[in-house]
Amino acid sequence: MALETNHQIEEFIKKSKNILLLLPFSPSGDALGAAWALHFSLKEKGIETEIFFDDPYNHVSLFNFLPHPSLTTNISEKREFVLIFDTSRNKISDTHIEKEEDKLKIFITPEKGFIEPRDFSFIPARFKYDLLIILGSPDKESLGTIYEKHSDIFFEIPIINIDNHNENENFGQINLVDVTASSVSEIVFKFLEKSEFSLSEKTANCLLFGIINATNSFKEKNTTPQSLEISARLIGLGADQQNIIRHLYKTQPLNILKLWGRVMSQLKWNEELKIIWVTVSLDDFIQSRSQPKDLPLILEKIKENYSAGKIFLALYSENQNFTRGIVQFSREEDLLKFTRLFNGKRRNSQCEFVLENKSLLEAEKETLEKIKSLFV
What we know:
Layout lengths: L1 H14 L3 E4 L6 H15 L5 E4 L28 E5 L6 E8 L4 E7 L9 E5 L6 E5 L9 H5 L1 H6 L2 E5 L10 E4 L6 H11 L6 H15 L9 H12 L4 H10 L3 H11 L3 E3 L4 E6 L1 H7 L6 H11 L5 E9 L2 E8 L2 H11 L2 E3 L2 E7 L3 H16 L1
Parallel strand pairs: 1-2, 1-7, 7-8, 8-9, 11-12
Antiparallel strand pairs: 3-6, 4-5, 10-11, 12-13, 13-15, 14-15
Helix pairs in contact: 2-5, 2-6, 5-6, 6-7, 6-8, 9-10, 12-13
């Protein structure tokens, strides 16, 4: 079945002229690495792609050390509106347009008599894109405002869905979903390897970056013998493992270190829930010259240093209207429960969520109460 699916995807890609690669809201490094790798590989075959995702906190800037393509900042949803006249019974002899302040008039002159309603119709033209490839998203809603603002695209253009989440809804016309894979980058590697598309050094670097990011440098439970074997092969193709690890885990900007220090001094612990949490104020971001996009990395570092913890939570507020949170669990099944309860957005082993009309103190109380109701 997998070989058949790979062949179907390859045929779809080769027949397409404009491919749009879509990633989840504030995408993981794994989804980014997979998308960049796919872009570079298809480009070598002369196939053009565009990459788009919602990234309100400029999360992608953390990975600028990698070779990466330019990103699309606006999906082209403009479509011509086609007026169709059936001229089999009555030819059109002349047309002209008149523009007024708030109106556009189109005049059509038939050869004889008048145009009957049955001879007239209109349709919207096709979108610019003829194929969507969605990477690392369990459902279309996880794409964020892209799906909300451009929903027509998802119903009029074929979708290839590539993912490793076990809650994936198989929403594509073609679904390449492998829940045993460590990452989306691993799935993309296996697809490229079996296809006519090449695996250059640039592509290999992006894929290895994705696998390392998804497995936390091969420390997480999703690391498998296959992911280690694929990583070794990517290194053989020229991927620089040490450079990726140095930028991801060893080289941290001063502002990240300052935020880490402020967070560590404010950590709270609940023995019953085995939860470590922190509320981050606007002043914490200002004094450390950091941004909310830096919190997922901080949460990872907290998890690495507190083996007794099972739940790791950070809450912050950008204004009085809502509070945002990021949570990470030791167990995948707990993360799924929490994501469903809070209608959150998954990003690797973390979930981002919003509590509207809640102050930081109110959000802290509500989140802890809900977590207790779930896991105690």
